[in-house]
Structure formats: structure tokens, C-alpha cells
Amino acid sequence: MINVIETLLDYIKNSSTDDTPPRPHIGETMGCWLYFTALAEEIPALETCLNTTTNSELLKLIHDSKNLAESQIDTLKKLMIKEGIPLPEIPATKPKSDPNSIPLGAKATDSEIANLLSVKIASNIVMCSTNMGQSIRTDIGLMWLKFHTEKGYIRIKSEISNAAKRMAQNPSLLLSTWSPS
Fold first, then answer.
1. How would you write the pLDDT of the chain (181 residues) with one tens digit per residue?
2. Which of 28, 37, 2, 7 is nearest to 139 (CA)?
3. DSSP assigned state of 85
4. How far apart, in whole angstroms, are the C-alpha atoms of residue 145 and residue 142?
5. Roughly what angle, to the nearest 10 degrees, separates helices 138-160 and 110-134?
6. How many helices and strands, by DSSP H and E, does the chain display?
7. pTM of this prediction?
8. Which of 82, 88, 97, 105 can pair with 51 through a Cys bridge, CB separation 3.0 to 4.6 Å?
9. CA 141 to CA 28: how far, in whole Å?
10. Sign of CA dihedral 43, 49, 51, 55
11. Cα–Cα–Cα angle for 127, 129, 132, nearest 5°?
């Protein structure tokens, strides 16, 4: 059986050389660009959610998700600028508004917001996993591992939250119609 900790330590030891890393290959570049774009689109959506709900547990999850997205996009931006990777356009931030002044038909429900959070976190985790697997450069691979772990932590927090449990929709169970004879 593979010892995960030993493998990770060997990976880090082998990466701590004084050689300058090669330029990111096209897969690493595309991964950075796509994840940056996903985060850049996620932040205004989270700001809209902040302007819509009054649920304190959901507000905490949204703030945590937004802060993490801003932190990750900042890390990516520094790497991309350093490596000469062009940055995609970033949508403008949303102004603050009073959730109670938004008409019911125009604002998202708490259930819709909880589902949006759940889907965004899950898709971000998959993107981080994919990018980690495609990374040749150790520093970029470790960045994806860090992002993956951070998003996983937010996912666990959202699962623990009573608000998310009550509001997020779970996929339906697969009930097999086939039975062995």
C-alpha cells in the first residue's frame, strides 16, 4: 500500500531545488485561466446572494466563500502576471443593497442560494483536482492542492451548517428496478 505522507514528503523534497522552474505548459496555463474566470464570475454571484438573504448562517457561509474566492483569485493573479499569462476580464463588483427592499419575485430564495453555493464549491473542487493532476510544475501542483483543500474545508462547513442542510437539494436516490432472480 502506498504511504501518502511519505509520497507527499518525497514530492516536496524533490521540488525544493534552486533551479528556476520552466514556464507553465498549456494545460497548466489553461487551468489557471479557467479557474481564475470561474472565481471572477463567482464573486459577483456571491455578492448578489449577500444582498438577497437575511439568514445569518447562510450569510456566514457566503462571506466565507467570497473571502476564499478573493484570496484564491489574488494568488492566481500574482502567478499569472509573473508567468506572463493574460488575465481575463473581471466583472464589476455588485453594490450593497437591502435584502428586504428586493421584491419577492426578483430575489433568490435561501434554498436557491444554498444550492448555488453547493454547486459552485463542488465544481471548484473538481477543477482543482483536474488542474492538480495536469500539473508538471511542483509549485503549481501544490497551489492546486492548497486550493482543493481550502474548498474542501468550505464544503465541510457548508455540510455542517444547519442552514445548508435544510435548504440544499440532494440528488435523488438511485432506486434500482432490477432485482436478481
1. 466 666 666 666 666 555 788 899 999 999 999 999 999 999 999 999 999 999 999 999 999 999 999 999 999 999 999 999 999 988 888 888 888 888 877 888 888 898 899 999 999 999 999 999 999 998 999 999 999 999 999 998 888 775 555 665 666 665 556 556 5
2. 28
3. P
4. 5
5. 160
6. 6, 0
7. 0.81
8. 97
9. 9
10. negative
11. 105
Q: Retrieve residue 120's grid coordinates.
A: 459552485
Joined grid coordinates for residue 96: 450593497
- The grid coordinates of residue 92 equal 464589476
Cβ neighbours, 10 Å, residue 8: 12
